[in-house]
Structure formats: structure tokens, C-alpha cells
């Protein structure tokens, strides 16, 4: 399609159809709402020269240019291109595809329900039976959520369980997807007497005065298949909204979360197909074997990466949100941006394998507006590749200037991942660390697609207001 739009055939069709000329290609393509389309008749000479200089620098280190990819565009205009339509190892840029497919499937306000039930009566604070957990694919159920769940059970009057902790459905905790292991972690989290040092540390991050739950379960952890007969529904736990789950996943490039989301969507082939369709690029430009990016077999073209970012931005705009609500912002969020020199206020996703370094996202500029870029590198000097990526963005920003009004266009509507404001006087901070947890996020109603005035209501992990009590215990 890129070659078709830039060849002049579209203009010929307009003439044959008696469409008045000239016509603004940006307006036309915007009406088609296809992010993967570009109008490449007038690439930016300065941008092309900067990218060429960048590639020459890579060649000088002994790297092969055919294993490097760069794509830079503004709106539907191509500014610079090298191997732009060639699928290359994407590493964690794969999570951009997973994020897009998840949005297409559920919408940004979706919340994953975990149901808690009982198989016996509750008398004098004792559940005389099993405590049943029915999971429903929540990828971000961690210590803080278990603590909040235990406190809600205590508030309902439940402090002991004579039976077992029974796990059903798709339940994971602390990114552990084995139901028996996840259930063992939950049993610890519900009872402060069993807390590990890690659980104690996470409790300290919760608001001052958060109680330490005491739900003592006498039996073992068991895994069962649905349905569980004669079960009393006690309460419903709702996850953080999908937009905030994706934000945390992308800040820390959390592989287990990405794998869980991709599996819930339908697996890597479904993620790739949905992402390609939403981005308007050929399916061949997004080739995935998983949802996290682990493995060089996950290959995406630089053009497709940019198109996916643009598709996400287009999807979120009606919700008064932007890509900054799903991806880390340089100068604001930490995670994989630690120790990087990416221009402040850029919204980016990093990617790292042992011989792959990738970077993509949005760069706000004064002269060109919002620039979409993707840089995919192959080489073993990861620090050197990251430094060159950062410098390329700094050089482009120096050419086109910074602009606070453009920054405001993509400012996140959710709470920052830390208390650190945007710092325009200091470099941002990245590497690809192991998966971690993060406090400080927001929630929303579970309506999967529609915008809502409460979409940006602020909650934190461990806030038990997301626990809906369904059964009144007689004390």
C-alpha cells in the first residue's frame, strides 16, 4: 500500500472519478483511518540525512545495515525509512502488539473479575467449608491485592476457614500461572502470620494504617474444575482497569503479564492478526510466537510498529486518553527508561534480547508535531546501541525543536507511576530489567468499550474499594 499511495496511482483514480484536485492526502488518509498508510512523496531531507548518519555510525562499528531498521513519520507523511517494511526481531516491541490486541478485545476500562465463594456456612467468624477462588485471567493480582482481599474477608467477619483453599478457573498471583503455586501464594497473602519478607515489604508500600489480614485456612491448597456445587458467592474482586494494567506491563516490560494477556486474547497468532488489522499493515509484517517478545522469532517491521502506536492513539482519543496512558513517558516513569537519555516527554517502548535492542514511540517536536518512530537494531553491544538510539532522537529533536503544546497533546490522564514530575532539565532514565511490581495507578468501571466520567478515578493496588461484597455474614 505504501508503494501504491506514493506512486501517483491514487491521484490518477481521483481524476478518473472526477474528484476535484488538488486533494489533501492527510485528509484523505485520515478519513480512511488506516494508520499503516503513508504519503511518501516528500520525505524530509534533514530527517533522512540524520538517519543516514546514524546508520553510517552503526556500520563503522562493524554492524550490517541490512539487520537494522528505522522508520520515522508524522501523521501520514514518511520522513525517513531504512528497511521499514522488513520484519526484524522486535524483542519487547511485541508488547505493543499485545497492548493493541488487548484494547481491541476488551477496551481500556475493562476489569478482570475474580470471584470468591464458600462451600459451607459461616458462624462466629469461621467458614465451615472451603474458600473458593474462581480466577478470570487477571494478570496483575499481586501481594497488595491479596492483602486487600484478606482485609475485606475480615471486614465481613471471616477469620478462619476449616476447609481448603480451592482454586478454579484461570487464577495467577505474582505472575505465577501454575494454579497450585498461585494458590499457595494467596494463602500466605491472606494471613499476615504467614507473610514472607517480600509480602511484608509490599504491605509497607500501602497507605499508612492498612490492616494486616488474618484469614487462617486450615486445609491445603487444591485445584478444582468448575463448577463447584453448593457454593455461596461471597464477593467479587475487580482488577485495575486494562489501561493501567498495560501501563504497568509496559513500564517494566513485564513478560509474564504480556504472556497472560496474549493467552487470554487467543494466543500469539490472534494477537498478530488483530494488531495487523487494526494498524492497517500486511499480516506478514507482524510475525509472533508469543505475546512478550522473548525470542528472535518475534519479528515486526519498523513501519508496523509505528502503525500500531498510531492505532492505539486513535483508539484512545475518544476516551480522552493517549498512548502515554499505556506506555512509559521519559522524564516521568522509570522502569526500562532508567539510565536512558531519551528526550523528555517522549512516549516509548523499549525492547532487549541478548543481541537485539529496539526503541519506538512518539517524539513531540515544534516544527513537525508528533513524530512516530521505530528503531530496531541487531548487535551484541546493547549499551552502545541504546546510546546511539537516544542520540538519534536527540538529534531529531534538535532539528525540529521542542514544543510544550505538542507534549500536552499526549500527556497521560492517569496518575504517574511515581511522584516524580516531568523534568525538562535532566535526561530521562533504561535497560530491560526483570519483571517488577509497581504501586500508584488508576481504575475505572468495567464497561469494556465506552468512555465514562469515572474512567480516570484514582485507585491504588491494594485498594479494597474494588472488592464488591455479595453476601452478608450474620455475626
Automatic annotation (TrEMBL):
SUPFAM superfamilies for the chain: beta-lactamase/transpeptidase-like
Domain of life the protein comes from: Bacteria
Lineage: Bacteria, Bacillati, Cyanobacteriota, Cyanophyceae, Leptolyngbyales
Keyword match Protease: yes
Amino acid composition bias (Low complexity), ranges on this chain: 425-435
Region listing for Disordered, in residue ranges: 412-455
Gene3D superfamilies: D-Ala-D-Ala carboxypeptidase C, peptidase S13 (3.50.80.20), DD-peptidase/beta-lactamase superfamily (3.40.710.10)
Coiled coil regions in record: none
EC class: hydrolase
InterPro entries: Beta-lactam/transpept-like, Peptidase_S13
Matching Pfam families: Peptidase_S13 (PF02113)
Family in the record: Belongs to the peptidase S13 family.
Name of the protein this chain belongs to: D-alanyl-D-alanine carboxypeptidase
Organism: Trichocoleus desertorum GB2-A4
Keywords associated with the record: Carboxypeptidase, Hydrolase, Protease
Amino acid at each position: 500500500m505504501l508503494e501504491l499511495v506514493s506512486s501517483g496511482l491514487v491521484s490518477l483514480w481521483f481524476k478518473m472519478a472526477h474528484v476535484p484536485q488538488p486533494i489533501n492526502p492527510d485528509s484523505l488518509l485520515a478519513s480512511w483511518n488506516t494508520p499503516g498508510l503513508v504519503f511518501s512523496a516528500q520525505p524530509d531531507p534533514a530527517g533522512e540525512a540524520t538517519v543516514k548518519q546514524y546508520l553510517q555510525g552503526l556500520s563503522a562499528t562493524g554492524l550490517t545495515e541490512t539487520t537494522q531498521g528505522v522508520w520515522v513519520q508524522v501523521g501520514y507523511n514518511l520522513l525517513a525509512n531504512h528497511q521499514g517494511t522488513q520484519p526484524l526481531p522486535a524483542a519487547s516491541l511485541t508488547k505493543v502488539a499485545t497492548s493493541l490486541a488487548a484494547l481491541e478485545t476488551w477496551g481500556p476500562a475493562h476489569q478482570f473479575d475474580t470471584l470468591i465463594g464458600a462451600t459451607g456456612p459461616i458462624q462466629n467468624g469461621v467458614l465451615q467449608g472451603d474458600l473458593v477462588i474462581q480466577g478470570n485471567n487477571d494478570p496483575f493480582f499481586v501481594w497488595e491485592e491479596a492483602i486487600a482481599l484478606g482485609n475485606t474477608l475480615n471486614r465481613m467477619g471471616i477469620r478462619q476457614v476449616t476447609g481448603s483453599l480451592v482454586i478454579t478457573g484461570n487464577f495467577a498471583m505474582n505472575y505465577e500461572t501454575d494454579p497450585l503455586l498461585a494458590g499457595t501464594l494467596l494463602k500466605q497473602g491472606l494471613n499476615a502470620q504467614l507473610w514472607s519478607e517480600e509480602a511484608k515489604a509490599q504491605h509497607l508500600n500501602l497507605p499508612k494504617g492498612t490492616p494486616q489480614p488474618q484469614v487462617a485456612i486450615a486445609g491445603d491448597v487444591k485445584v478444582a474444575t468448575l463448577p463447584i456445587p453448593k457454593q455461596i458467592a461471597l464477593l467479587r474482586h475487580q482488577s485495575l482497569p486494562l489501561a493501567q494494567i498495560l501501563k504497568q506491563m509496559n513500564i517494566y516490560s513485564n513478560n509474564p503479564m504480556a504472556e497472560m494477556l496474549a493467552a487470554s486474547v487467543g494466543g500469539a497468532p490472534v494477537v498478530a492478526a488483530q494488531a495487523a488489522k487494526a494498524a492497517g499493515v500486511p499480516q506478514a509484517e507482524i510475525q509472533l510466537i508469543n505475546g512478550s517478545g522473548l525470542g528472535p522469532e518475534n519479528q515486526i517491521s519498523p513501519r508496523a510498529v509505528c502503525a500500531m502506536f498510531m492505532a492505539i492513539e486513535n483508539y484512545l482519543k475518544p476516551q480522552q486518553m493517549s498512548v502515554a496512558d499505556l506506555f512509559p513517558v521519559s522524564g516521568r516513569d522509570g522502569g526500562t527508561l532508567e539510565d536512558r537519555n531519551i528526550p523528555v516527554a517522549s512516549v516509548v517502548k523499549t525492547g532487549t534480547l541478548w543481541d537485539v535492542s529496539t526503541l519506538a514511540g512518539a517524539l513531540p517536536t515544534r516544527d513537525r508535531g508528533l513524530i512516530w518512530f521505530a528503531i530496531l537494531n541487531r548487535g551484541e553491544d546493547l549499551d552502545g546501541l541504546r546510546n546511539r538510539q537516544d542520540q538519534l532522537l536527540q538529534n531529531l529533536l534538535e532539528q525540529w525543536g521542542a514544543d510544550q503544546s505538542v507534549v500536552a497533546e499526549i500527556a497521560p490522564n492517569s496518575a504517574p507511576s511515581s511522584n516524580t514530575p516531568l523534568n525538562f532539565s535532566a535526561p530521562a532514565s533504561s535497560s530491560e530489567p526483570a519483571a517488577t511490581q509497581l504501586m500508584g495507578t488508576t481504575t475505572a468501571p468495567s464497561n469494556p468499550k465506552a468512555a465514562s466520567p469515572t474512567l480516570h478515578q484514582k485507585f491504588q493496588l491494594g485498594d479494597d474499594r474494588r472488592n464488591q461484597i455479595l453476601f452478608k455474614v450474620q455475626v
